[in-house]
Amino acid sequence: MDPAILHAKGSLCTIDVGSRSITTESIEDELSEFIGGRGVATKLAHDRIPFDADPYGSENRLYFSTGPLQQSQMSFTGRMNCTALSPLTDGVASVNAGGYLSRNFVGTGHSVVELTGQSDELLAVHVTDDDIEFEEVPELKEATVPEVTVVMNERHGLESGNLATIGPAGENRVRFAYVMTYDSRAFGRGGLGAVMGSKNVKAITFQDDSAPDLEVPTEEIQSAVHRGAATSDHIMRRQGTTNSIEFINDNFSFPKRYFSERSFGDIKNIDGDAVEEKKYKKVSCSVCAFVRKLPTKDEERGVETEGPELETVFSFGSNCGIGDLVDIMQSNKLCDRYGMDTISCGNVIAAYLASEDEFSNTDLVEKIAFREEEGDLLAEGVARAHDDLGVENYSVKGVSSLLTMAVYSTDRDSPTPLRTAAAITCTRRRLPTSTAEMSIRRERPARPNS
Predict the structure, then answer these.
(1) Which of 3, 91, 411, 445 is 20–30 Å from 382 (CA)?
(2) Where are the chain's structural domains?
(3) For residue 298, what are the CA distances in angstroms to 206, 275, 284?
């Protein structure tokens, strides 16, 4: 690869939470060959995690990394990667989150931070440019994500954008637990929160101002991108990914009642327009002028959350037979508090409701997070729980998503966008997510922005 290609700088910092030891080493070769946080973390995971490793074992390694554009001031760049062996799929999973963590991370001077081993005590790990601190936090056992943020702020002056945190679901090894940052931004899919929980790490924090010197795109390029983001009238700025819900439903691919039907009759109650009506302010990620996040509120019922996005509306909405947006908002809020992937959680609840013929009931989120009663089985996810539930296994590569129906119900007579989505879901290396749903949007007529 051309050595002139822009790539991240900084060391690999390996933190063994079992022995509480730290090593740093240069990974310049990997950084120059594998561009971006996901690329280099996947390379390291491939080389350093044993092929037959237990996702919950001490030999699994959890990587935090990001790419070179964090040292710019350009819109759309505030992303952070997390990679490990997934307890949901038993393969390597790389997931990313927005918010403000990425720029606090590069301030430590590291390009990749690797967690390995298993701690005997529940820990918060604090990473700065010249030190790693191990703080025992037994009092935070099964604390929610926002509760951890409050404690870290009171003790250390850290904000939610400095933290990567797990909730009770991660500690209880719910297979689709996720790592949270900024209280509402998730390293979703794949259950990497459960990996962090298996290492007995409640939170890892990043703070400092020692980002390596790095040539970034010219100010002219950064300004052009920033200006384009700030002046765009794209509908995603108002509705996020929910803007395509009505279109997908009209094309018979918005599943209802655990994938038993392709379209949902009450779609107007939960579509992008309905979500936009609940949006009450503008929120963005780090230095991004596009401002497309979805802080929503229902004053009457006292529900406030960030979201829901497209796949959460599907999983906790139509797939559970629910046409009440505020109910979906509440489920979204609980998943963020407990640290669980909304898509996997909603879909495994839908599977349970199908087994009980009891749709329109999602009062199982807390039981799953704490593995109580039937929640213990559901915490295993659709692929592992479906036999005991007596329902079909609507998952792909161990993960259920909006596009699962495309895979299981598509034939040669299905609409082209649905067949395209099915092919992408089956063949892409990454976990099934709403990004593959972009294949549907590309083929639809342009929708007016106003």
Answers:
(1) 411
(2) 11-206, 232-393
(3) 34, 11, 20
- The partner residues of 24 in beta bridges, in order of sequence, read 13
Q: Are 67 and 8 in contact (CB under 8 A)?
A: yes
Q: CA 171 from chain center: how many Å?
A: 17
Tokens standing for residue 361: 């009931």
Specify the length of the chain in residues. 450
Please check the confidence at residue 327 and state whether its pLDDT lies above 70. yes
Q: Strands (DSSP E) along 300-407, which ranges?
A: 303-306
Distance of CA 281 to the CA centre of its chain: 22
Query: What's at 418, amino acid-wise?
Result: L
Residue 42 Cα to chain centre, angstroms:
17
To the question of pTM greater than 0.85 for the whole model, the response is yes
Give the residue carrying structure tokens 């979201």.
307
Helix 325-338 and helix 145-156: axis angle, to 10°?
A: 50
Considering only the C-alpha atoms of the chain, give the largest distance between any 2 of them, rounded to a whole number of Å: 61
pLDDT category, 440, cuts 50, 70, 90?
A: very low
Domain 11-206: assigned CATH number: 3.60.9.10
Cα–Cα distance between 370 and 122 in angstroms, integer? 17
Quick one: tokens of 407?
């895979």
Instruction: Answer whether CATH 1.10.569.10 is correct for domain 232-393.
Output: yes
C-alpha to C-alpha distance for 250 and 377, rounded to whole angstroms: 34
Which candidate, 284, 361, 288, places its Cα nearest to that of 330? 361
Do 11-206 and 232-393 come out as alike in CATH topology? no
Residues 6+ away with beta carbon under 8 Å from 393: 382, 383, 386, 387
